[in-house]
Structures are given as structure tokens and as C-alpha cells.
Amino acid sequence: MPYLSLEWYFPFFEGILLGLLAMALHEVGHVLAALALGIRVKGVGMRWKGMYTVREAGPPAKNLLISLAGPLTNVLLMLCWHWSPTFGLANFCFALGNLLPIKGSDGDRALKCWHDMRNQGPAA
Q1: Domain of 15, in residue numbers
Q2: Number of structural domains, the chain?
Q3: CA distance 105 to 112
Q4: Which residue in 16, 113, 28, 20 sits closest to 70, CA to CA?
Q5: What is the pTM of this model?
Q6: Along the 124 residues of the chain, how does pLDDT read in single tens digits?
């Protein structure tokens, strides 16, 4: 019975572990961007939807950069495709999924920041 062999389950567990690593590094991207821009990070947590970062609110321009930092981290990590196609694919999925303007996603937050910046007009 091949399904009783641990070798049969390896691709599944590899995908889960590399997906969790891609998710954690995505959040590290948000945290590093926030800290670099002088925005205090209050914490990082995990929910059923995945990991999240809690931070102080900043101006729209900084919030835009912080929102895009996670998906950008995943785009850069896609370069690991050569060494680990599974890790590259996990990062591709995280980057794409987070850039879509779905409520609560990084893409949604970035779009809102972009609109806020456009509506503010030139600085006085």
C-alpha cells in the first residue's frame, strides 16, 4: 500500500512547510518596511486566514509602501524557483493573492492608500 509510506506524504508536508515559510517571510517584509519608515510595529499574529501585522497608522504614502513590501518580498523570493520550485510557487501564490484588491488584502490597502494620496492633492 503506497499511501502508508512516508515518502508518499512528503510533497504535501513540503508544500505546507514552504507555504508557511513564504507567509512568515511576507510578514517580515511588512515589519521591516514599517520599521524602516519609522512606523511602530505592535505585533504579528496568526488567524485562520494567515498571518497579520499590527502596527501604528501612518500617512498614506508610508502605508502604501508597507502594504506593497510583503508582496514584493514574495516576488523577490520567487527567484528561489531554481533551487526549490515548490518554494517559488508558494511565493508566486502569496504575491499574486495579496496583490488582488480583495477586501483586507495588501492590494486593497495599497489601492486605498493610492486613492487617499491622489485625493489629498499637492502638499501645502
Answers
A1: 2-120
A2: 1
A3: 11
A4: 28
A5: 0.86
A6: 666 777 778 888 988 999 999 999 999 999 999 999 999 999 999 888 888 899 999 999 999 999 999 999 999 999 988 999 999 999 999 999 999 999 989 999 999 999 999 998 665 4
